[in-house]
C-alpha cells in the first residue's frame, strides 16, 4: 500500500484486501474483515490527528515506562 | 455456599479452627452445583486441590508456620500456566499443546502462600474480547442475572468470585479484561501498574499492554493477594506491600477528582448515579479532564489488533477455521494493518502518559465508571450510547482502554446496589500507587458505598 492507510478510500481498502488472499481473507470472512479494517482506519485517523495536534516529535517511542 | 473471605479462611485454617481439606471439599461441592448454570470453570483440579489441602493440614497439625493464604481456594483464568495442565487460553488451537512445565509466577506465589488452586476459568479466546462469549467453550453467565454476560475477557474469573465459589481468582487485563468483568459481576478487581506483577507463564496477548491481576469480594482480600503476588515483577521494581498500612492510609484525606468528558460519554443513568455516590463519599472535585483519552483509546485499539495479529499470524494463515470467528476476523484485519499505524500508536503513548502525569500532580485518585452500562444480555450485538447505536463487544471497554494504555494502577469497586445489576467504578491512581487506590476502595467499603453482594440463587432466577 503506497497510500497511507489512514488516507485509503473504499477502493483502496478493497484492493488491499484482494491482495491478501494468502491470509485466507476470502469469503465468508471478507465482509467482516473489511468492516473491521474500516473501524481500524477510523481509530488510526484519530491517532494521527492527535499526534498532529500534540506536535508529535516524530521519534519512535522506546520501551514504555508507566 | 459459605462466601467466606480469604482472610477469614486463612485465619481459621492456620489456627486449626477449620481444616483445609474441609474448605476444599465445600468449594468443590459448590463448583459442582453452580458451574452448570454459570459456565465459569473450564477445568476443575479436584485431585490436586485435595492433595494440597491434606498436605497443608498435616503441616498445621505438626505446628509448622504456614503462609498468609493457608487453605484459601483460588482459581485462575485458563491462560495462566499450571504445571501438568495444558494452557488453552480459551482456544481449541492450543488444546493439544504440551502441558505446562511449571506454574505461572502468580500461581506459584499464591500456592507458596498456602492458597489452593481448584480450577481454571473461561475467557474470551486469546483474551481478545470484553464478553466471554467463547465460541468453543460457551458463554460465561453473570451470577446476578444468568441471561447476561459476565464481561471479559476474564469473565470466568469474575463470575466464580461473584458467585462465591472462590474468594480469589487470577485474571489478566490488556484493555479492561479485569475491570469490565469485575464491574459487571459486582466484585473488586485490581489491575496493578504495568510491569508491577510478573507475567511469566501467562499466555500473552499484547506484550506492550498485558497486565496480570486479581479479583476478590473484599478490599482486604484484594490487598492481601496483591501483597503475596509482588516481588520479581516485570519492572524489577521493589515490592510495596500494602495490607499493613491500608487502614491508616484509608483514613487520610485524599485529593480525588472525577473524570468527565470521554469517561462519561454515553453512560447510562444508573452508572452516572453510581459515580455520583462514590464521588460524593470521597468529596471528589468535578470537571476533571484527561485530554486525549479518545485518541488513547484509539491508539490502544490499533496496537492491540496489530500486535495480537502478529502473535497469531502462523495459525491465522494455516487454520483460520479453528479460531473463534469474532477473534479471527479482527486478527485478519490486524494483519493488514501497516506498521506505520502501530508506530503512531506507540508515539502517542508517552504523550498521553505525560497528560495523565500532569493531572496526577493535582489529584491522588481519579474516578471513572468501569463500563457505560450494566451487563448486556448474552448474544446482544448492539447497544445505544449517547443516542448512537454501537456494537457491544468493543464499546464495553471504552472507559477502561485509555487507562491501561498508560499502565496506571486501578481498583474496580462495586457500588452498593443490593438487588440491582452491578455497576463498577474505576479508582485510578498514579503509576506505582496501588496503595492509594486500595486505600480509597477500603474507605468506600467502610462507608458502605461499595460492596460485593451475593447474587440471587440460580434456582430463583427466571
How would you sum up this structure, described in words?
By secondary structure, chain A is mainly alpha-helical. Chain A has helices at 10-18, 30-54. Chain A starts with 9 loop residues before the first helix and ends in a 12-residue tail after the last helix. The model of chain A has no long low-confidence stretch (mean pLDDT 77). With 462 residues, chain B is an alpha+beta fold. Chain B has one domain (6-296, 338-457): Amidase signature (AS) domain (Amidase signature (AS) enzymes). In chain B, the strands form four sheets. Chain B has an eleven-stranded mixed sheet with strand order 1-3-2-8-10-9-16-17-13-11-12, sandwiched between helices. A two-stranded antiparallel ribbon of chain B has the order 4-5. In chain B, strands 6-7 form a two-stranded antiparallel sheet. In chain B, strand 2, helix 4 (105-112) and strand 3 (116-121) form a beta-alpha-beta unit. In chain B, helix 7 runs antiparallel to helix 16 (434-447) and helix 10 (293-311) crosses helix 13 (339-360). The A-B interface holds A 1, 4-6, 16-17, 20, 22-25, 29, 32-33, 36-37, 39-40, 42-44, 46-51, 54, 56-61, 64, 66 and B 193-195, 208, 292, 294-295, 297-299, 301-302, 305, 316-317, 320, 325, 328-330, 332-338, 340-341, 343-351, 353, 394, 406-408, 431-432.
